Amino acid sequence: MKRFKKEKYDDLGLDTKSPSNGYRALNKDGTFNVRKENVSFFERMNIFHSVVSMPWLQFFLILGLGYFIINIVFASLYLIIGTEHLTGIYGTTKIDQFIEAFFFSAQTITTLGYGQIAPLNLAANIVAATESLLGLLLFALATGLMYGRFSKPFATIKYSTVAVIAPYNEINGFMFRVVNPKSNQLLEVEVNVNLSIKRENSDLRDFYSLELERSKVVFFPTMWTIVHPISQNSPIYGLKKENLLEKDAEFIVVIKAFDESFSQSVYSRSSYKAEEIKWGEKFAYLAKRDESGISIDVGRIDETFAVDLN
Amino acid sequence: MKRFKKEKYDDLGLDTKSPSNGYRALNKDGTFNVRKENVSFFERMNIFHSVVSMPWLQFFLILGLGYFIINIVFASLYLIIGTEHLTGIYGTTKIDQFIEAFFFSAQTITTLGYGQIAPLNLAANIVAATESLLGLLLFALATGLMYGRFSKPFATIKYSTVAVIAPYNEINGFMFRVVNPKSNQLLEVEVNVNLSIKRENSDLRDFYSLELERSKVVFFPTMWTIVHPISQNSPIYGLKKENLLEKDAEFIVVIKAFDESFSQSVYSRSSYKAEEIKWGEKFAYLAKRDESGISIDVGRIDETFAVDLN
Amino acid sequence: MKRFKKEKYDDLGLDTKSPSNGYRALNKDGTFNVRKENVSFFERMNIFHSVVSMPWLQFFLILGLGYFIINIVFASLYLIIGTEHLTGIYGTTKIDQFIEAFFFSAQTITTLGYGQIAPLNLAANIVAATESLLGLLLFALATGLMYGRFSKPFATIKYSTVAVIAPYNEINGFMFRVVNPKSNQLLEVEVNVNLSIKRENSDLRDFYSLELERSKVVFFPTMWTIVHPISQNSPIYGLKKENLLEKDAEFIVVIKAFDESFSQSVYSRSSYKAEEIKWGEKFAYLAKRDESGISIDVGRIDETFAVDLN
Amino acid sequence: MKRFKKEKYDDLGLDTKSPSNGYRALNKDGTFNVRKENVSFFERMNIFHSVVSMPWLQFFLILGLGYFIINIVFASLYLIIGTEHLTGIYGTTKIDQFIEAFFFSAQTITTLGYGQIAPLNLAANIVAATESLLGLLLFALATGLMYGRFSKPFATIKYSTVAVIAPYNEINGFMFRVVNPKSNQLLEVEVNVNLSIKRENSDLRDFYSLELERSKVVFFPTMWTIVHPISQNSPIYGLKKENLLEKDAEFIVVIKAFDESFSQSVYSRSSYKAEEIKWGEKFAYLAKRDESGISIDVGRIDETFAVDLN
């Protein structure tokens, strides 16, 4: 009989010698509960990742601020050169000239170039020609990043809030449910469920890869109930609710899919802790058929009913 | 003897407890016949997917309308500021000033900037500088999406309208034919055929993955006849035409390929219902050889001739 | 003893009932020798593929011509509206006015907008505002395609002109050699060799997948000699040079690799006909070591020397 | 008992008939120590690869220089045509006119188009219209490449400086450690370790693929210790430190991962020479748990302590 492969958990740095219960390695939103220390700023930084992951508001604030600061810098340069070397500057005070130079800079860096203000001498021309080149490059980056953010693939899989232990054929099964709420198709969906439990009389944790009833579907139009059959060679065979709680069990889920809108692979992650498992409950059927075809009530994803376990 | 794996169909939410025959899970164009209910607008929406999938006409109408509305908004702003703070506005009526402001806005947002109209005071300059920044960002998105639409990979595989049951070696086979009508190469083409049939004396459906004579080809220059040999362990072994109709059979096809033009994976889907299967017909040879080489008559993809079944 | 899997060649439409010898399914440059007939223009066309695959000269000619024609069209529109509604048009003859309108159009569509010519009335403004919008969209497409062409991944694998039959361990082997002449890395290189031979006393062809000494390498810095060992279960076991010629043998090679510069998979194809195989020759060693390290003389890729076959 | 597959090393052109010890095939930074000779310039060149791989400073210098040279060329053209055919050129000397034409060219190629200088006659208009078209195309390429560089995926895996031979279960193991210092997630991480050793009494080298305790992890949040168990069928079973040095052993590591920020596969390469292996040392635990959760001290990646070998 093939036993489930037991893997040492500590070599991944996810947990080791945890003094107490209640640890969650993977958060519900797919982020990991591990901090990295003593990584130099240079090693850690990943500008592209930061810019692509930040909220839209922050992105636009940084963009707007950058635009403002660059125009301040170039307005200062035009003032140093002397606004008498720009046509169409009529301000007599320094502050008025600065404002006019500021907007001339804005017209130059966006390559708008109304021309009511224009550079006259060599220095002003050099600054303006440099600014327009810089503008093209910076806006290429900014707009590229904006489109990159907009077209970034992301898995939109929604998980049932709880998992259940329900009868499955002659035995029981660990089950949870996922839906694809979006209209885009997910194809070749692969699911991977790992169990992390505390080793008996030890601070260390063991890490098991769980066998699934089905670990891959070719298409995933709406909903999928993922089942780990608790057969004799399952690491949770014979365990009761209180055992899972004691062992501080965590079921770590990673789903991979090909998203047809983005033509790219996307990954989704979530986890279920022992406290998030309902024993002796079964997920309700969501599919319904009327004259207009089949429909799935996604809002009832968490609906369960009581059943007797095998 | 290895039996075909029978998979419960209902866990995918494609069909369950269907009260009658005549249901099609997958349409000929690859879309699914399942509606999703009670998905919040926020969860459902996928702007990128919508914009990339809509028809070109709709895309250009939205773009044109957006351009029009934004110019209306900014023209109003310039009017609120007062068109006396723009050079080159000669209109004396509000409506004339609005029209001139509208086109000034258009010249600003596209960074065209003729300069025959130009902002004079602080407020007009702020609006114009903001508009040109906004213009760069919005046009980056619009043109990015346009290019994204244009360069979006899509599988262009054409399916034979009908499938056939024809002799295959000593037994019979379920066969259909696909062609690649385009000039681009499809590589590593993988095909996956699933059968959905009604369970006897039940509303539920069973779902089988069908074994194929060949499920992958390294290159696919023109045409491929895909064959499921109806051997003893086929789920349709021994079934007759009327049985397949009774069981409301549906053969669901998913084809994956690497498209060399787009350097990306593409997926194509279609299905054959029991009514779309011709029994005792065979596909005609399409390849022909003359002095200028081999040619395939793609127009004859549906041509069949009668044969005796084994 | 596992026999090589024999596959029917005709279901791929590559060849069937060929009346004579001398047919080549795959050209040396990786294109296929099969024409498709009766494909409607709409089905066949793939604008993206055409634009991305055409030679650079053709691409620039089409671009330049398009720019010229669009300016002709818009210049005509401005003339119909009347050039008196544009400032700065001084031409008195129709032809002069057309030329000035033509360049005004060019300044508008590129969003250059000098402003020495500018629209005055409503009609001219509408045309100019539309033209600048159109310009942004068209140039986004044109420049996107230009960058798409430039950054398109392509396999740059170079094949030895001939293949050889040389001793390999206790038996003989069919061998050819590939090099990566570029400085970019190819990773996870997979090779696939298929043999197409005429069936005895028949016009049909058989298609075999050949077993290789090694069909995948993790990295491919310079050169690789690909070997098909002619063991007892090889389809060419016991065949002589004249047999391969009689059977009009063709060895079809498909190589897949991950190109690190483009971060994408690339495919390369080629083929060897019976005439392009040297019997009793072995490829010369190309690697040489001196104080500055190892070097490979890529220019000697085709160098062979005579050996006795097993 | 399955023996490790021994592969001939020379067919990859990585080394052959090396006259002495001390050769490194793969550098620590993942580049290969093999030169290619007699590759024609045309075959070798890969402009995209060069531009995407060069340092940022070089990229900007080339860009700036290109901008300068193109403006010189077009300024010369305007001078040949005669600056009297441009409005707003006030220079009386050739040098002044050239400078003004230079900046007019800069305003044209960036589509800035202030308009204080503008073309008047046919020739000047043709040059300006051509220049603005060229500008759009060249800047599309330049800014596309800039964004391509910025968004290029790269594996940021950090390797322990040394590898160790440490006890592993009842035997010993060859171990090294990798960390992901960045905040982006790496998924489906696959590792591949190959050993290259000199053949006894020969100049040739043998090449082994090493079996690993675990060769793939689904997610890789922080750190991973990769272990090759030195079992009886390991090619280094029974070898001592001096044997590995004698055989000039090199352990070549290739890691593949899916980078979630870039939604693409990335590869990382490194190698360990016999001199870089510490015998009888074990890597220190880096994970630590306090009230704020788990943390990994990445700075201690190289920390080892002495242990007795089995």
UniProtKB/TrEMBL annotation, chains A, B, C, D:
It comes from Maribacter cobaltidurans. Residues 81-146 form the Potassium channel domain. Keywords: Ion channel, Ion transport, Membrane, Potassium, Potassium transport, Transmembrane, Transmembrane helix, Transport, Voltage-gated channel. Residues 157-308 form the Inward rectifier potassium channel C-terminal domain. Gene3D superfamilies: 1.10.287.70, G protein-activated inward rectifier potassium channel 1 (2.60.40.1400). InterPro entries: Ig_E-set, IRK_C, K_chnl_dom, K_chnl_inward-rec_Kir, K_chnl_inward-rec_Kir_cyto. One of its GO terms (molecular function) is inward rectifier potassium channel activity. GO terms for cellular component: monoatomic ion channel complex; plasma membrane. This is K+ channel, inward rectifier. It is found in: Membrane. One of its GO terms (biological process) is regulation of monoatomic ion transmembrane transport. The keyword Ion transport applies. It is a multi-pass membrane protein.
